[in-house]
Design a protein that fits this description.
heterodimer; A: alpha+beta; Heat Shock Protein 90; five-stranded antiparallel beta sheet; five-stranded mixed beta sheet; 53% helix; rod-shaped; B: 5 helices; 48% helix; globular
Chain lengths: 579, 123
């Protein structure tokens, strides 16, 4: 809970740290947040997208290269082994074919000659177990080989066997490995023999499985590579290195028939990826198969991919942090510039408004002053007449009436005087200012308001407060704003204290205090910001302009507030406005 | 006490006429004029004891009249009548040699007090 709020604060700081919006600034906050979001999004996407694209392309390319590199040796091994195997099979088939062509039926039917043939074959090629000579009807005519098999062959008729028909029609046959009635699995190569009379015989050789096994390459112990031969029905023709024996079901499915060597990427039942290399051996039912576990080959690839992805993730984090920070700073600057601009506009507007009001007030005051002077003189003359005529009817009453007229003229005159005093010096003009008198003048404007609101205003002036060099109109505005604010804070019934003192020979401090509700601590830092307001119909400019004027007059303004106790504004003014 | 001869100059006849009448009622010999240039001419010819002069006048204004009078009749004291809000002009007037200034609307007793002081200081 605590941790998450901490994180949230950190994020907020990262986002809005440089442009913490004032509460009254909700519209603008949303506006700038939108700019911020699009800035982060666009720069982020522009920076990250090519990076992601490049990484994906790289990974893909590396993967392809590494896979090819992993598969190529497999392909080569499969090819060379297939060739060797094919060669040894064709070699034997050709030898057998040569013998069938070379020898006559009589010779092949002669056990003595056939025995010398198999001895010769074995001395050259090895792995011949026996030779059988069979007539066109499928009857065994002659047999040489281990004596223990001979009895089993006597009287066997092959005329219905598939291989026999194939030899008769096609000329040659190489069989699968099969157990037959011999002890070890074996396979046969059979070829056709024709004698000059056109009679057909078949010469059949049995070869032991060793011939195939000897062609399987061996691998080091920790190499997971396996190589074996299967037939087209998916039966192992040689033992698999990892547990399965010949004639058991092959550990891999039968791959599709292809003329050339193929390498495929496959997944086994337990989900492990492996490389399957295979080659069909022509004119035989054999398929040479080689499997290599992929993870071992791809080890280097995985670590490379890890590095790439790590780099990508790191870069994305750095880019996001940077774009976030840069966007925050930029948006903050834009907002500050906008605010200054708007503030300046408002100030210009306000100043020109004040100037117009000032000119209007001055004009009105002048115009009214003349008739007032005339009324004053006429009433004065009337007063003289009545005064000098003892028998004037209702003399005393008349004198009182005339004096009342004169007093009213004086009041009117005081008002025009105040208007003129306020209207004067719209432009900055430095002159000696008697601060107590100036503040009294300002209070004159607010007298009625104070009475109406039942606010008690007390002014304390320390001894020896000197007059200062400053601008009269601007100072009037400052104190009018501050005292008016104090009145507004109090609403009704309260006290406003104004203290004028000079703690330092070069500085005069005017403190305006109220015993109102005070300003909440979180708002204290914002009150001089433009557009900050807690009033429903405030512009949020009063204190900002006040602050601006005080700064322009080379002064300082500070605020102190305690909730429930009241607020004090200290305006520190230099005795001489240094330029 | 010899009768004091006062020259009153203001472009507003309603005002200056009434003020002149009030001063006459109090025993002063008052002449009033509505024009600055006329005032300069008359002041040169007649022995007025004191000049009460409005600052804001069309044509030749109070300050110009004052300058001229100070050239032709330097011994004659001049009291300026000013409207509210032209203290700056009054200040200039004092620098030009006016005896004092008084704000409109005028309190007659205050005016007489200043006139007597001006004439007295002149003796």
């Amino acid at each position: 809970m605590r941790g998450s709020s901490l994180l949230k604060n950190l994020l907020r700081k990262l986002m809005y740290g440089t442009w913490g919006a004032a509460p009254s600034d909700v519209y603008k906050k949303i506006h700038y947040r939108r700019i911020w979001i699009s800035s982060v999004f666009i720069t982020g996407v522009v920076a990250i997208a090519p990076l992601v694209f490049m990484t994906v392309v790289n990974i893909h390319q590396y993967h392809k290269t590494i896979k090819e590199e992993a598969m190529h040796p497999t392909s080569r091994l499969v090819s060379s082994n297939k060739r060797a195997l094919e060669h040894s099979l064709i070699e034997r088939k050709n030898a057998l074919q040569f013998i069938a062509n070379e020898k006559s039926t009589e010779q092949l039917a002669d056990t003595q000659i056939l025995r010398s043939i198999i001895d010769n074959l074995n001395s050259t090629f090895e792995h011949f177990v026996d030779l059988t000579f069979i007539d066109e009807q499928g009857n065994v005519i002659n047999y040489v080989g281990p004596a223990r098999y001979e009895s089993k062959l006597r009287g066997v008729n092959y005329s219905q066997a598939g291989w026999f028909q194939e030899v008769r029609d096609e000329g040659a046959h190489i069989s699968d490995v099969f157990p037959g009635f011999r002890e070890t699995p074996h396979f046969v190569i059979a070829v056709r023999h024709r004698d000059p009379h056109g009679d057909m015989h078949v010469l059949r050789a049995t070869l032991d499985m060793e011939l195939l096994t000897s062609k399987i390459p061996s691998f080091s112990k920790d190499d997971g590579t396996d190589a074996f031969i299967i037939n087209e029905k998916g039966v192992l023709q040689t033992a698999s290195r990892f547990g399965r024996k010949a004639l058991e079901k092959a550990p891999v499915p039968v791959p599709p028939k292809m003329a050339a060597t193929e390498v495929l990427e496959k997944t086994d039942d337990s989900g492990r990826a492996y490389v399957l290399g295979y080659a069909y051996i022509e004119d035989t039912p054999f398929i040479f198969i080689m499997t290599r576990p992929l993870p071992e080959l791809m080890q280097s690839w995985l670590s490379l991919r890890g590095t790439l992805l790590g780099f990508l993730a790191g870069s994305i984090v750095v880019i996001l942090l940077l774009t976030t920070a840069v966007s925050s700073v930029l948006v903050g600057r834009i907002r500050d510039a906008d605010m200054h601009h708007e503030m300046a506009l408002h100030k210009v507007e306000y100043t020109s408004k004040m100037a117009s009001i000032g000119r209007l007030a001055a004009g009105v005051a002048h115009e009214i002053n003349n008739p007032l002077a005339i009324i004053n003189e006429k009433a004065g003359l009337l007063h003289d007449f009545v005064d000098m005529t003892p028998e004037f009817p209702k003399r005393d009453k008349s004198l009182k009436l005339i004096e009342s007229i004169i007093a009213s003229v004086e009041r009117g005159s005081a008002i025009t005087h105040r208007l003129l005093g306020f209207a004067r010096h719209i432009d900055v003009k430095i002159q000696p200012i008697d601060l107590p008198a100036l503040i009294n003048e300002v209070l004159g404007f607010l007298e009625k308001e104070a009475v109406f609101r039942n606010i008690e205003v007390q002014t304390f002036i320390a001894d020896g407060v000197p007059s200062i060099m400053s601008d009269r109109g601007q100072l009037q505005q400052v104190f009018l704003n501050l005292i008016n604010n104090a009145f507004e804070a109090l609403k009704k019934d309260g006290r406003v204290g104004i203290l004028i003192e000079n703690k330092d020979p070069d500085l005069v401090v005017v403190t305006i205090s109220d015993n109102g509700p005070g300003i909440p601590e979180e708002d204290l830092g914002h009150i001089f910001e433009p557009f900050f307001t807690t009033k429903t119909e405030g512009t949020g400019l009063g204190l900002a302009i006040t602050y601006g004027i005080v700064r322009k007059l080379r002064g300082e303004i500070e605020v102190e507030s305690q909730e429930g106790r009241g607020t004090s504004f200290h305006v520190v003014l230099p005795r001489i406005r240094g330029d | 006490m010899p009768e004091l001869r006062v020259l009153l100059v203001d472009d507003e006849e309603e005002l200056v006429g009434t003020l002149a009448e009030r001063l006459s009622l109090r025993g002063y010999d008052v002449t009033y004029l509505l024009d600055g240039a006329e005032a300069v001419r008359r002041a040169a010819q007649e022995p007025f004891d004191v000049l009460v002069l409005d600052v804001m006048m069309p044509g030749m204004n109070g300050l110009e009249v004052l300058k001229e009078i100070k050239r032709t009749r330097p011994e004659m004291p001049v009291i300026l009548l000013t409207g509210r809000g032209s203290e700056q002009d009054s200040q200039t007037g004092l620098e030009l040699g006016a005896f004092d200034y008084i704000m409109k609307p005028v309190k007659i007793d205050r005016l007489i007090e200043i006139m007597l002081k001006a004439v007295g200081s002149n003796d």
